[in-house]
What does this fold into?
Amino acid sequence: MKEIRNWVTVEEVNWYKKIKPIIMQPPRQTIKDYLISKYYIKALSFVFIYLISKYFNKRYLYYKYVFKDVKDYPNGYDIAISYKGPTECDTPR
It folds into this structure.
């Protein structure tokens, strides 16, 4: 971040922290977390979408559901850069 020029506007996303567990952990854990938190409707809809996406082998449906609460960026942007993606480990190997 120190190397970025001061005329570049940097905005970090805040929605990732909310969906990271859903992406990184097994679906059973997500369902368990929803049930523990008493989000019964969310748990049921998650199970439904997960099973449909598995049955039809369409991961798109699953990720569309996971990202449904992520809003479009209203101001637009020139470029979006991600230095760490959801498939990377938090610990070095």
User: Anything to note?
Assistant: The mean pLDDT is 84. The helical segments are 16-24, 27-36, 40-56, 59-66. Residues 40-56 form the longest helix (17 residues). The chain has four helices and no strands.
